[in-house]
Amino acid sequence: xxxxxxxxxxxxxxxxxxxxxxxxxxxxxxxxxxxxxxxxxxxxxxxxxxxxxxxxxxxxxxxxxxxxxxxxxxxxxxxxxxxxxxxxxxxxxxxxxxxxxxxxxxxxxxxxxxxxxxxxxx
Length: 122
Description:
By secondary structure, this protein is mainly β. The chain has strands at residues 2-5, 8-11, 16-22, 31-37, 44-49, 56-58, 66-71, 76-81, 90-97, 111-112, 116-121.
């Protein structure tokens, strides 16, 4: 199971850190990622990383502002979001998969958290 939290309401230019806690089969090695979805839009790929954290990928719209990391002891993945913009406003979801570590297609990821809302005001 995945649970995302840490969302909130911030102003443009602020920073926010999201967390995604994994529970259950933590003995398996899962690649993890972040997606987001704004009202009326398709789910958009944000970032992802391999299970060991060695490879990290970012969507073009967040490259240079967001960074993904993980704490293997706590089975938690983080998304550090800096220089937030109003267009970053969305529901943010974390995802996991045993085989996929970089795919912009949400359907490729097997496991999903419930999401957390991020609102950036101008």
